[in-house]
Specification:
The protein is mainly α and about 180 residues long. It has a domain of about 100 residues: Methane Monooxygenase Hydroxylase, Chain G, domain 1. The protein is about 60% helix and about 0% strand. Helix 6 packs antiparallel against helix 7, helix 6 packs parallel to helix 9 and helix 7 packs antiparallel against helix 9.
């Protein structure tokens, strides 16, 4: 019997869902009315607005704001900005610049003279170390290494497709006199 009376007491509680909403919002105003700008305020905001233009130079601005040789791990938004910068360079087909950017960010030495097998072994060993540059989380480091490998492959592909020079070499473009 005692448990039945407890159950009846719980069911007898009067819970009102409207009280928190009434306390949060003044009567007669909707959310749109509260957040709406007046015409004058909108025009003032419109005058000061300038769109953010990304033109492939995100890496330059990012390098200036990164802490140098820190032991602390970068915050996730900053690490995401690093990835966006590398992705932007990749999109604009600036593969060698993307590789150099990754080396600079992670504080690695640039060893592009390696063969593909040496570079794969180097990439794996770099993933283990924290480098001399900024410290990033493992997921970001793996993605940076992935982009570095993709950029190396694309740069090699572009180099092999380069038009031959006058003397038959593919490392320089043909110069017209």
């Amino acid at each position: 019997m005692d448990s039945e009376s407890d159950a009846n007491l719980l069911l007898a509680l009067d819970l009102s869902d409207s009280e928190p909403d009434e306390a949060a919002a003044p009567k007669g105003q909707t959310r749109a009315e509260r957040s709406a700008l007046s015409d004058a305020a909108f025009q003032a905001l419109k005058e000061t607005y300038k769109p953010k233009v990304e033109n492939g130079e995100l890496c330059k601005a990012l390098l200036q704001t990164l802490p140098q040789h820190t032991k602390q791990q970068l915050p996730k938004p900053t690490a995401q900005a690093l990835l966006h910068a590398v992705e932007e360079l990749y999109f604009f087909r600036r593969y060698t610049k993307a590789i150099a950017f990754i080396h600079e960010v992670l504080g690695e030495e640039d060893n592009d003279a390696n063969t593909n097998e040496d570079s794969k072994a180097q990439d794996e060993s770099e993933g283990q170390s924290s480098g001399q540059g900024v410290k990033v989380d493992d997921e970001t480091r793996k993605l940076l290494m992935y982009y570095k490998a993709k950029c190396r492959a694309r740069a090699a592909e572009l180099k092999s497709k380069a038009p031959p020079t006058i003397d038959g070499r593919k490392d320089r473009p043909v110069e017209c006199a």
